[in-house]
Amino acid sequence: MDNQFLDEYIHLEKLCNEIYATNHGISRYIEDMEQTNRVIQAKIHLWTSTYKKLKELRWKRNQLVHEGNVEYDDADIVWLRWFYQQIMDAKDPLSVKHQLLQQQINSNMPVINRRENVTFESTRKTDNFWTERKILIIVSVIILIIVGVKMLL
User: Angle CA(42)–CA(43)–CA(46) in degrees, nearest 5?
Assistant: First the structure.
């Protein structure tokens, strides 16, 4: 069971590493969650439970690798697989956050925190799927700048 837990954790870590173009991708994902405005967090289903579970599983992985002993169960393995698929389907909390912010921009609603628009998405690698998302963010930021300049005039 040790190998299966580590294999699933490493599989998710590799995906997050690719997203962030760095090592320790799961830690970067957690950091992005921590830097997100609490108002936004409250609007996203499973935000808190996902955050807590990621921190718990990262701790378990570190204990297993560095101390050699930790208790985990099949549910942890299932959750790692489920979360991997959530990211692939853009249904994970940070993808949902981006979608929510994009909806606010598209509907001309005031954005709660403008820096939220680039935190997660601006660090993704440039494969086709993520490139399209980056383009949406860039266009959104340009629109915000234009609207802001017009308001000043």
Answer: 75
